[in-house]
Amino acid sequence: MRRRRELSDRQLGVLFLLPFVVLSLGFVVYPALDAIRLAFHSKLPFRNSFTFVGLDNFRYLRDDPVFWAAAWQSCVWTGASIVLQTVFGVAIALLLHQAVRGINVFRGLLLFPYMVPTVVIALICRWMFNPELGIVNAVLKGSGLVRGEVYWLSDPTWAMVSTILLNVWKFTPFVVICVLARLQTIPVEIVEAAQVDGAGAWRRFLHITLPQLKAVLAVVVVFRTIWTFNKFEEIYLLTRGGPGTSTFNLAVYAFEQATANLKLGVAAATGVVMLTLLFAGSVFYLRLIRQQEAV
Amino acid sequence: MNRRQFLATTTAGALTQWPRRASAQAKTGTVRVWGEPGPYGAVAVDGMNEWAQKNAPGLKFAIETIPWSDVYPKLMTDLAAGRPAHCISVESPIAFQLMAEGLLEPVDDLVDKIGRNRLIPGIKWEYWGAWKGKQYVIPAHHQSHLLVVRTDVLKDAGVTKSPAEWNWADQLAAAKAIKAKGKVFGMSFALGRTIATDYYVISLLHSAGGRMFDAANKSEVVFDSPAAVETFEYILELFPTMPPGAVGYTFLDVVDSMAKGQAGMAFYWGRVFGRAAEVDKQVFDTMEAYQHAANPKTGKRLNWNDFQGWLIPKDNNPYIAEIKQALVHIQTSRDWQIRYAQSLVPNVSPVFQDVAQDARLTQHPFFQTKRRTIFEYYVEALKHASNSGNELLQGISPLAGIVHGRAIIAQGVQRMLIDKQPAKDAVKWTHQQLEQVRREHIRLVI
User: Which residue in the set B101, B192, B406 is minimally distant from A242, CB to CB?
Assistant: First the structure.
C-alpha cells in the first residue's frame, strides 16, 4: 500500500500562507502599484484616455494651497487623536485592570464603540452636535458650562474638535484592549516588591508599568497613526471636510479630487504622498523605539 | 379583402412584429433607474414596470435613489467606472454635461411619440437637454425653489408688506425683524460646501443680472461682475439672520429648519410643504410660497428650476430600446403623469398641458389649503425660471454640472463667510475657478 506523501512543515506553512498571498496580491499589491502608475498619468474617465504626464500631478499638489492645508490638518487630526486615544486608552486599561466584581461587564461594554458601524455613529453625531437641536449643546447649556450655542460642525475649529472627538471615542477601545492584554502579563511580584519598597502608585506606574507597556504602545501608536492618517469616512460623514475645507485631511482631499474634480491622477498622487509619509514616519518611529530599548 | 390578401397581410404583420416582440420578451434582468429621494421616482418606475409586464415580462425596473448632495459624485464615479444606471432622472445642468460628453442616447425618436406640442406654453424641450440639434433628455417635471415664508412669523415681526411685492431690501429687513424677535431665525439658507448652495446663490446672481458663463460665446467666463459682488454682499448681509449652522447646510438641513419651525423664511422647492405637513401641522398651516424678492436694480425675481428629466446612458446599456418604450408609456399616460405629480405636491410640477388641465390633478388635499402656493410653483415659477446650465434661459452651457460637482460657487461664498475675504476677492477667486473648469473642459464647448 502506497503511503501518501506528507508535506514538510515548511511546505505546510507556505500552503497556509498561499490564500493570504493571493488575496494580498490581488487586493493590496496590484491596486497600490496601479495607483502609483496612475499618479504619473492623466486619465479622462469618460474618454478612455490615459496619458503619461510625468510629475505634473505632483506639481499640481505642490501648487494647490488646499493640499497643503489638508496635509497640515491631517497632522493635527492624527496627532491629537493619537495622543488622546493613548492617554485615555492607558488610563481606562489601568482602571479595568482591577479585580472588581463585574469588571468583565465593563470590559464587554468597552467594545461597543468599536462594534458600531462608523456611518451610524457619524450620523448620530451629526444630530448630537447640531447646535440648535443637539444633546451636546443642551447638556452644556443645562449644566451652565456654556451660555450660547457652540457651533460644533459650522465653526472651523470646533469642526476639527468634533471629528477628533468622534475618532477618539470610536478607537480608544482598541488601545484599551491592547494595553489591558499587556498589563495582565506583567508579573505581580515586581509590582508588589516596589510596593513593599515604598513606591507610590504614580512611581510604580512610571517606573514599572510604563516601561513594560513601551513595546505594545509602540505597535499601537504606529498602527493607530497609519489608520488615523488614512481615515476618510469619519470626517466625510461628519463634516464632508467642511466648513470650507477646514477639516479636509489628505484622504478627503484625494476623494474630492477623484470624484468631484475627476482628477484621478491627482488623487492617486495624493495617495502616493500619503504612502511615502506614512512609510517614512513608521520607520523613523520604530527605529526610535528600538534605539531606546537598546539604551 | 380576399383570403389570399388577408393571409398575406397578417403573415407580413406577424413576421415584422415577431422579431421585436420576441427580442423584448427574451430580455431578462433588472433595469436600474436612478432618481432623487422622493416618491416620484418610484411612481415612474411602477409605470415602467406596468409596461414591462405587458411587453417584456422578463424585465424588472428598479429604482435606486441617491441623496441629493451625492448625486454628482455618484453619477460621475459610476459613469467613469462604466456601470451607470440604465436610466437616470437628474436635473438639467448635470444632464447637459453628460450629453456634451457624448454619454447619452439621443431620444429624438421619442419626442413626437410623447407629443412635441404637449409642453406647457412658454417652456421648450431644450430646457431639459438638447445639444447640437439633438434631444437627449425627456422632460419629467419642473421644480423651482421659491421664497417660503411663515405668515405668522412675519406678522409677529411686524412685517406688513406682502412678500409678493418685496425687493431684496424688503426681504433683508423682514429677516432682520424676525431675528430681532429672538424666537426663530430670519432666513434658512444652504451655505455648506454642496451643490445646494450653488443652486441658491445662482438664483440671486441671475436676478442681479449676472451669469457664470456666456453660452453664446463658447462659454466664456463672465462671473466676475458687479452683479456677482452685489450677490455675495447680499448673502453676507443676510447671513446674521440665518442659523449660524447654515455654513454647513445642504438641502435637508434647510427643509428641517423650516419644517420644524426654526426659521421664518427659506428658499426651497415644494417638498418642504410635504415635510412640514408630516412633522409640524402648525408650521405647515402658516407656510406660503412666493416668487423670489426682486433685485432692486433689475427687478428680476429669478428662481432655480431643475427642469428634471429622464436620460439614457448609451454605453454598455443593453436595455435602451426597452427603456425608450417604457418612457413613452409613462409619459403618454395621463394616469401615470397625474400619479407622478401627486406623489409630492407641490414639488413635482407637471410639464404637459393635458396633465396640468386634468381635473384629477387637483384631487390632492394640499389643493384645499395651499392652492395659491401650488399655483406659484406650478405656473408662476415658470415665468421666472432660470438655472445654471441654461442661464437666464439664454443658452445651454455644459460646464455648469462640473462647477456644481466641485461646489465652486459654494466655496466662493464660504471664502467670504468663513475665511472673511472681501466679497470682491471671493468673487475673483470663484471666477478663477470657473476659468480653470473651462480650460480643463474646453473640448465640451468648442
Answer: B192
- Work out how many domains chain B is built from and give that number: 2
End-to-end Cα spacing for chain B: 59
DSSP three-state, residue B139: strand
Overall size of chain B counted in residues: 446
d(Cα A230, Cα B266) in Å, to the nearest integer?
38
Assess if residue B339 is contained within a domain.
Answer: yes
**Residue at A57 is within a domain:** no
Q: Is residue B374 part of a domain?
A: no
Q: What is the pTM of this model?
A: 0.84
> What tens-digit pLDDT sequence spans chain B (446 residues)?
454 454 444 444 444 444 444 454 578 999 999 998 889 999 999 999 999 999 999 999 999 988 777 788 888 888 878 788 999 999 999 999 999 999 999 999 999 999 999 999 989 999 999 999 999 999 999 999 999 999 999 999 999 999 999 999 999 999 999 999 999 999 999 999 889 999 999 999 999 999 999 999 999 999 999 999 999 999 999 999 998 889 888 898 899 999 999 999 999 999 999 999 999 999 999 999 999 999 999 999 999 999 999 999 998 899 999 999 999 999 999 999 999 999 999 999 999 999 999 999 999 999 999 999 999 999 999 999 999 999 999 999 999 999 998 899 999 999 999 889 999 999 999 999 999 999 989 989 98
What is the domain-level CATH number for residue A288? 1.10.3720.10
Statement to judge: residues B226 and B280 lie in one domain:
yes
In three-state secondary structure terms, A260 is coil
Residue B392, in any domain of the structure: no
Q: How far is B409 from chain A (nearest CA, A)?
A: 12
Question: What's the total number of domains in chain A?
Answer: 1
Closest partner residue to B80 (CB to CB) among A45, A130, A260 is A45
A/B interface, count of CB pairs below 8 Å: 73
| Contact state of A154 with B262 under an 8 Å Cβ cutoff | no
Contact list in B for residue A46 (CB cut-off 8 A) is 79-80, 101-103
Residues of B in contact with A151 (CB under 8 A): 244-245
B/e letters for A74-83, b = 16+ CB within 10 Å, e = fewer, are beebbebbbe
Nearest CA in chain A to B246: A154
Instruction: Tell me the residue range of the domain where B320 lies.
Output: 3-142+306-369
CATH number of the domain enclosing B157: 3.40.190.10
Of B73, B248, B405, nearest to A154 by CB-CB distance is B248
Q: Is B441 on the interface with A (CB under 8 A)?
A: no
Residues B280 and B313 in one domain: no
- Residue A140 forms part of a structural domain: yes
Residues A238/A164, Cβ–Cβ less than 8 Å: no
CA A5, chain centre distance (Å): 46
Q: Does residue A43 belong to any structural domain of this protein?
A: no
